[in-house]
Amino acid sequence: MRYSLFSVLGQALRGQRDWKPQWRDAAPKAEYDVVIVGGGGHGLATAYYLAKEHGITNVAVLEKSHVGSGNVGRNTTIVRSNYGLPGNIPFYEHSMKLWEGLEQDINYNAMVSQRGVLNLYHSDAQRDAYARRGNAMRMAGIDAELLDREGVRAMVPFIDFDNARFPVKGGLLQRRGGTVRHDAVAWGYARAASDRGVDIIQNCAVTGIRRENGRVTGVETSRGFIGAKKVGLSVAGSSSLLAAMVDMRLPIESHVLQAFVSEGVKPLIDCVMTFGAGHFYVSQSDKGGLVFGGDIDGYNSYAQRGNLHTIEDVMEGGMALWPGLGRLRLLRHWGGIMDMSMDGSPIIDRTDIGGLYLNAGWCYGGFKATPAAGFCFAHTIARDEPHPHSAAYRLDRFATGHLIDEKGMGAQPNLH
Amino acid sequence: MRIRCPYCGERDNGEFSYLGDAAPVRPDGMDASSEAMHDYVYLRDNRAGEIRELWYHAAGCRSWLVVTRDTRTHAITDVQPAREVAKTRRAETRLAETRTVTPAGSASHA
């Protein structure tokens, strides 16, 4: 079923009774050309682009729970392409362009809202660093504006410009950045992939990866063995556990990141704003809740829940920037498990095992990358070579020294 | 989450900072191959379950601790001073070295 104004009006007249499920809840077949492990945003996008760009439709996406239950339904919905390093810039801009055309492409309302991403700076040194990043973006054809204090005041007059320790001096603005409704991204890609023949298999946990003569032959699952010529791992948070099934160790630690939503209020903030002196980022959802987050908790975790100490830290950051936040009540908060890589950048690559591919290490920036990660991972799987935009995201870069460390933190995953 | 520091007692985890898995042992820098250094610096087991990890009691006694914690539940089962753990490991290494230099024949029952 194609969504349009007419289908919406028609359903309204018929009492919304005739909507069909958006995708087939498939049962596993004996064998597929490609099996994608992980039915999150990245896995579903990969399956979609395998079908659309490469004509490979004998594909299954295996999800251990239900579609949307992992990080794609747990993030703060921010999209942007304001990176400063050559390995990252073309990739994230490709993602931004795919976001801009996503809704027409998959015929689904993903509520792509280019409301602008504003990164605040609080010192001369930080201004210089942001100016440099903005210039790197503009040289690559990406929009970036360096705002002074008055420019920021025009956008967000309610923040504390004269904080004694971290006064707001200005900001770097990417107007094309913004937010996208995260659940709709999962549902939209699932529907679009399913329409092209992809099997989406939920409640199907992978328990082993079968190999013969150095090549994968399929995966053991909670619903039996499923044969596959190629297997793509796209399981942020659990990448190390899947890799351990084929005796691989990854440059990744799993950490918990918490996010928060306040009670719903009338429109307060019409952009995404980040605090440059602490770690705090905030936007407002269409339901009215302020959606915000901060640092990861900082210790290895697979628990999908965090601790109060980090919650306090996030609230302190928020209050330092925007004292009015203290008048709001917190509605809910939750945690997701992040693949924190050793240089803060992702991995999209082949592995030493024939037919096994890896999409991992997204730290806590995986959501904005969803379309391009799917696009480039599909290319890597279909052609057995990296896509030019993701060519820097090699698994062996830690051995060769070609690290992509945007923050310059070194091999300490909890600091990225 | 609270950590029972052997010197200060049970404290909120906000007082501590985290280094990571305590398992990797730095290879001897002069003789180590680049592969061994790569594995030490970058690769992690990242297990779901009980792991031993290094925490630093920054807002307390400023000691390094080896904490045994379950990454699935955050339950802590053991905390030891890192100094003691390192001492024990050094003693074990010395013992192993002594064994390897003993003449053949006696090593098996050393």
UniProtKB/TrEMBL annotation, chain A:
EC number: 1.5.3.24
PANTHER family cross-referenced by the UniProt entry: FAD-DEPENDENT OXIDOREDUCTASE DOMAIN-CONTAINING PROTEIN 1 (PTHR13847:SF287), SARCOSINE DEHYDROGENASE-RELATED (PTHR13847)
Cofactors named for this entry: FMN; FAD
Keyword Flavoprotein among UniProt keywords: yes
Gene from which the chain derives: soxB_1
Residue intervals of the Rhodanese domain: 34-78
Main location: cytoplasm
Similarity-based family: Belongs to the SoxB family.
Pfam families: DAO (PF01266)
Keyword Oxidoreductase listed: yes
Enzymatic class: oxidoreductase
Alphabetized InterPro entries for the sequence: FAD-dep_OxRdtase, FAD/NAD-bd_sf, Rhodanese-like_dom, SoxB
Protein name as annotated: Sarcosine oxidase subunit beta
Cellular localisation: Cytoplasm
Taxonomic lineage of the native organism: Bacteria, Pseudomonadati, Pseudomonadota, Alphaproteobacteria, Hyphomicrobiales
UniProt-listed PROSITE patterns: RHODANESE_3 (PS50206)
Automatic annotation (TrEMBL), chain B:
Compositionally skewed regions (Polar residues) per UniProt: 101-110
Domain of life (superkingdom): Bacteria
Listed InterPro entries: SoxD, SoxD_sf
Region (Disordered): 83-110
Pfam families: SoxD
Protein name: Sarcosine oxidase subunit delta
UniProt xrefs under Gene3D superfamilies: Folate-binding superfamily (3.30.2270.10)
Bias kind Basic and acidic residues: ranges: 84-97
Coiled-coil parts of chain: none
